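Re: adenosine-5'-diphosphate structure - here you go.
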Amino acid sequence: MVSSLPVTGHSDVAELRSYVGGSWEGGATVLDDLNPAHPSEVVAQVQAADARLAADAVAAARAAFPAWRDLPAPARGEILRRAADLLEQRVDDVSRDLAREEGKTLAEAAGETQRAAAILRYYAGQTLEADGETYPSASPSTFLYARREPIGVVLAITPWNFPIAIPAWKLAPALAYGNTVVWKPAELVPVTAVHLVCALVDAGLPAGVLNVVLGRSSVVGEALLAGPVDALTFTGSNEVGRQLQLQALERGTKVQLELGGKNPAVVLADADLELAAEQIARGAFLSAGQKCTATSRVIVERSLFEPLAERLVERARGWRLGDPLDPETRVGPLASAAQLERVTGFLEVARRDGGEALAGGEPAAIDGGFYFRPTVVAGLGPESPMVRDEVFGPVAALLPADSYEEAVALANDTPFGLSAAVFTRDLGRALRFAKEIRAGVVKVNQESAGLELQVPFGGTKASSSGSREQGKAAREFFTEWKTVYVDPPPP
Ligand code: ADP
């Protein structure tokens, strides 16, 4: 049973609805939300929104904008702070539901929920920061200032892999800086979405300020963008992101995209092997590799190739695969049947390309769930799809390099540029790598995944578009400058 949510429904399966203009609105089509660890288990059902409800959501956000913009920023911050407190109080319920519908482990789900609360609290604090600057004017009588103002109605479209942290890092700054929001969460994770909405609504968010549209993107996507909205912040696949970016540009809508990654970990000959193996395994296998910052290419100086491969294989075989709710589980299932098919397909192609799975390489039959074994692949050339494309599964592809220079060249040989890790005892080398790698995030002796919330996040090349997310950098996207010239009237 889904806990503490405003649901309808019969038996013990909750029925969720969209939240539009301050009320929960249903629809005629019902979608099942499945548990990827036991796909016969329906976690919840969703009364899916239609295009008309999506349009209503944009209209509600538009109507609520002037009053929300005019509320003093610290009062907006108070609501975010209360929502953070509520999420923390509800962390057990939220993380259990998150693990059940998305498949990451309970510990990961709890960490993610705590992170969402911390993000809400951070942006609550930002509402007390300076919101502009004064400038000297060329005219002696002019008071000249510029301030950041909200953009208006923000459309947030989010993926399933971090179903509460990613929405929090879009919604919290959007709301803190005075925008109203229409949010379309991924179809796979509606319960987590409703938990976040409930925390904000119970904290006192006025009607219409946040509207959540639960439904199929093919049904509601067009109506949401055509709303019209003033800004679109999107995290998801390159394919969908680019398509939405084109639509947004045609309409003059401001766009921010966080897309895929093909993140390298470079292991130099002087690296601490145990540290490198542990961090790379974490980056590649935790959350079943379903992170845009996951490590997917491991580029190793040749002298360490065999010993590092051995250590990765040991972890891939040893880390326990199983039900996310079992505290012994280290790696849960993939999020959906489509994901399982995708990852399995990559392995088939890799084998055809001459790749060898040193560990894993196949699904695991556990309770009919969408499990894929943590996998280490060697023997692939740089052109193989497993090395070029985002897999989004627990798979590390090993590539040897004969020098630092070759390692960096291989690491940069990708259309993506989200995050990158380097393992070395030579900090001079590490800083050179940080300069030479084309990535938005660089980790030295740390896994490529894992972010702190107070610093900018985003990628280079095909991984991102528009300004950075998180930290103070978020202000760039969610506000715009207004410059004011004030001459006092003559006495
Ligand atoms: P993922 O593989 O992570 O699901 P997608 O890019 O397919 O990545 O989806 C990311 C988000 O974008 C999800 O919320 C999805 O429903 C939404 N989405 C997909 N296609 C569209 C579309 N045409 N219009 C609006 N939203 C869409």
